[in-house]
Amino acid sequence: xxxxxxxxxxxxxxxxxxxxxxxxxxxxxxxxxxxxxxxxxxxxxxxxxxxxxxxxxxxxxxxxxxxxxxxxxxxxxxxxxxxxxxxxxxxxxxxxxxxxxxxxxxxxxxxxxxxxxxxxxxxxxxxxxxxxxxxxxxxxxxxxxxxxxxxxxxxxxxxxxxxxxxxxxxxxxxxxxxxxxxxxxxxxxxxxxxxxxxxxxxxxxxxxxxxxxxxxxxxxxxxxxxxxxxxxxxxxxxxxxxxxxxxxxxxxxxxxxxxxxxxxxxxxxxxxxxxxxxxxxxxxxxxxxxxxxxxxxxxxxxxxxxxxxxxxxxxxxxxxxxxxxxxxxxxxxxxxxxxxxxxxxxxxxxxxxxxxxxxxxxxxxxxxxxxxxxxxxxxxxxxxxxxxxxxxxxxxxxxxxxxxxxxxxxxxxxxxxxxxx
Amino acid sequence: xxxxxxxxxxxxxxxxxxxxxxxxxxxxxxxxxxxxxxxxxxxxxxxxxxxxxxxxxxxxxxxxxxxxxxxxxxxxxxxxxxxxxxxxxxxxxxxxxxxxxxxxxxxxxxxxxxxxxxxxxxxxxxxxxxxxxxxxxxxxxxxxxxxxxxxxxxxxxxxxxxxxxxxxxxxxxxxxxxxxxxxxxxxxxxxxxxxxxxxxxxxxxxxxxxxxxxxxxxxxxxxxxxxxxxxxxxxxxxxxxxxxxxxxxxxxxxxxxxxxxxxxxxxxxxxxxxxxxxxxxxxxxxxxxxxxxxxxxxxxxxxxxxxxxxxxxxxxxxxxxxxxxxxxxxxxxxxxxxxxxxxxxxxxxxxxxxxxxxxxxxxxxxxxxxxxxxxxxxxxxxxxxxxxxxxxxxxxxxxxxxxxxxxxxxxxxxxxxxxxxxxxxxxxxxxxxxxxxxxxxxxxxxxxxxxxxxxxxxxxxxxxxxxxxxxxxxxxxxxxxxxx
Lengths: 421, 484
What we know:
By secondary structure, chain A is α/β, with parallel strands linked by helices. Chain A is built from 26 helices and 9 strands.
């Protein structure tokens, strides 16, 4: 297999059994956002797997057009949900992206922009430092390059009080303790959505969870992993495992879907690290979305009525990647007065997708507009979702379309329903 | 030399601006549809964004004598969209708009790249649906459905695609844009629509279609029965129809396909040798009344379990199990070959017995899923491409099954089409005069034989049909000789 040794796709060889599962039926096509927009076979999961195999077999090079079709993948994993043959696409695209970053030289501008993102986004302190002068940057927006303008446009308009929120390291359970829970405070979440973390802590504590939110924790590595930087992701993962091991907890609660889906795969990510493989698997088995934890605990606190028509948006990394769709709906319906509205194309990504909205702005905007239109057409009082990226994306897209939507994180709604009860 | 020289390609770019794919690595992904063992890299791929662009592309091909092949979403199972290495593949994925929804007249107008299920989704709020429902309905395109005259589980009662198309706008092989059919249920003049639907892309490229939609029936009842043997399930089917009942659908699955579906979408089917899905629809009182008979007949035929879907959720779960059955074979076998044949319903048991003998003899596992109501069999032959010779062995087994269908007075395809895969069987089913008659029609539409050449017809009898291999012989290319 000389050809295999020479091709930059050679690292995909161990994953060949995963590719073999694809029978080319095409069931993934209509659920793939990039195929939906572009209509090209190369921009579909079926086409990408075909290209991966062709690359591995040395039939195609890692040329710029080939790379471009992997770059249009949002990593939303809708294809895994749709696949009747059980193809695992996530490891395939992650490995392909790692191969691309290792072998494919990108233009200088793109390279610097990616470096900037990875130097800032995963670090909540740096984000926070940037948060304060954002107002100044907005004022000077017109002077900045297009990519940076976009970064500023998407950045949440966090108030200074949001930026100051620091989640308490230990919050005791109210009443008798039912679970000892660790909370991932996240990077973007911690810097710009401190109020979501606060709400998560209050809801968990009210339902009898002692909440540990160690201040020393950092990024979970999801952004890096999804962008083809597995070594960086592994570094973050080891640090996070080490921090939470000290706490002796029953479960790790996550309120950002993208983080949760990556943390559940730590066992796979660190499978070749003898010091961490077993610890990573144990850690991963404890990772739960906050809605999974709350639905396993029969409600202790009554919910006060909230007469709201809610359009629930499934974050791809919660619905497709973690299969968590029932739990958030159950929790919302546990609030008297809430009506859940059916949303068309609810299985299609909103276009946020990690750093996708920063590196593929045109496609991201088109998907955002589509999503905002379908959500607006239900006439909701509120859109509820479970991922910070989706919140920013949907708010921005709805505002651009002139149909502003109120978008909230599910724990904020639950917090309001349980407060003062 | 290849017909696709740079002058041709630049004119192709002009015909469909921004829609041409000529990078070799990109063209590679269009090598095959869902029938993966037949592959050819197209000379160029073009994704037109309008009927006018389709017309411009076809005109150019006609002028330059370049073969062209229409493709929807590439889900066909007979290689109908198998590309031509020196030809243009016209992908219709971007023509995916629903142009008009006319509920009072129960009619929709759509572009060919719209998926079958999208039509039902769009008209569902008005209490309507589009009746033909192939298993791939979530992804297969209407253009492809028209080409193949697709059926589906419910065609026993509601008919095939041809019964639901009112008119089409199509580009003929010489580049003429024409409308065939009319908004009336039966247009005067020659029934060209009947000729076009099911012509497998050999007569024209459809750019728009007006389709009938139906009102949702008042009641739908679905029953799932487990039987100790395929024969017992077959007896139940005959008895149901013998009672004068025409169910909306009668589907049968055997144990291997039940297991595959279970591994894939967990429909929670009984672990019996065969299951039968029977669906009745219509006015509530009629459905309730007939259902009693169906249930009794199933039990008399030896049903071990009978489950009745009481709500939409249960019904969807049962159908999900059935519709995922093909693709789910990927869970139990590295590769599989889907066969599609038809036998008279009364000969089902006999043909299935022959298939079971063949399974034992060949050493290859064969799953069976079929539209039992109309005798449309879908044997799934499991094989492993990695084992040398096994793919060919599977093909031989699949071919033997078709012979059984012909022997029993059936047909070589029920709904997947002849395409590239089964053209050699056409002469087993039809006499020369039959095939020549079809060729006369084909030649009238496409005298230059450029529109999806090398499909459907077995031998080059009229107007220069070139069969078999998809590349010209080097001698021909060099202009030193030609086929006869």
